[in-house]
Amino acid sequence: MSIVLALTGLAILLIALIIFVRNQQIGTDGTNRGSTRRGIILLMFFGLLLGLASQLPVFQS
Predict the structure, then answer these.
(1) 3-class secondary-structure state, position 43
(2) Any stretches that span the bilayer, and where are they (predicted)?
(3) What is the pLDDT of residues 1-55, one digit of tens each?
(4) By the 8 A CB rule, do 53 and 8 touch?
(5) Please, are residues 49 and 9 in contact by the beta-carbon 8 Å criterion?
């Protein structure tokens, strides 16, 4: 179970990275970038949360 949580967390962090890089390439027009930044922050938070939760003794078998 811990491997599944860790891999899911890494996948979410990878998605956040891809969105971040695409957001940087959009340009400096600034349209709708605030909500994208909030989405990136939420994805990073949940990815890190899953990655750290995989280290809890409850999920280790």
Answers:
(1) helix
(2) 39-59
(3) 888 989 999 999 999 999 888 887 666 665 666 678 888 899 999 999 998 988 8
(4) no
(5) yes
pLDDT at 1: 84
Q: Is 51:2 a contact under the CB 8 Å cutoff? A: no
Q: How many residues does the chain have?
A: 61
Q: Is 31 helix (H, G, I), strand (E, B) or coil?
A: coil
The predicted pLDDT at position 23 comes to 81
Q: What is the pLDDT of residue 60?
A: 77
Look up tokens 């990073």; give the residue: 44
Q: Which residues contact 55 (CB under 8 A, 6 or more apart)?
A: 2
Neighbours of 9 (CB within 10 A): 19
* CA-closest candidate to residue 3, choices 57, 53, 54: 54
